[in-house]
């Protein structure tokens, strides 16, 4: 059936492009998602496709990036780059036991068990300027499902303290607000905070290394 008078002819791929826009970091995100693996097939060519869009959306969903629209924007690029650049060897975790590793430089965190990666790197948000998360090797010394912060008047789900008043807990705000930082704590996405809590125990080792940019 031919197009009638006044009908709009849509070029192939146009409808898809409108539904899943190409971002300014398309090729870089494709390359880092391919390096990370686990998000589906991507083609590193800087061109948006249905497969690329699905992979980027899966990545955005996993790491709490909003909106989830498959667009390779600055936040998606930043998170993908940080994760792909994280070296688990940099933690220098012991060959025995469980070690929670916090990479301040890349703002990532992961868990090692018996010298091998147990939980892959995920994103975190640590202390901002003036509240820098201290580097060193520590032990978890307090754990509560929900802890109240008196200084900041906020609940901290899945609290695991490891030095002074600093510990792991679920973020209470959008993790990817670039200008923000914590008051020293290691903020985690909800699923990661629960996973860390399930693995942790009093006496678990925490290693914090590197330095957050800008602090």
UniProtKB/TrEMBL annotation:
Keyword field: Cell shape, Cell wall biogenesis/degradation, Peptidoglycan synthesis, Transferase
Record-linked Gene3D superfamilies: L,D-transpeptidase catalytic domain-like, PGBD-like superfamily/PGBD
GO MF terms, alphabetically ordered: peptidoglycan L,D-transpeptidase activity; transferase activity
Pfam families the record matches: YkuD (PF03734)
Entry annotated with the keyword Lyase: no
Listed pathway(s): Cell wall biogenesis; peptidoglycan biosynthesis
One GO cellular component term noted in the UniProt record for this chain: extracellular region
CDD domains documented for this protein: YkuD_like
Domain of life, per lineage: Bacteria
GO BP, sorted A to Z: cell wall organization; peptidoglycan-protein cross-linking; regulation of cell shape
L,D-TPase catalytic domain mapped to chain residues: 98-209
Active site: 169 (proton donor/acceptor), 185 (nucleophile)
Protein name, entry field: Murein L,D-transpeptidase
Organism listed in the record: Spirilliplanes yamanashiensis
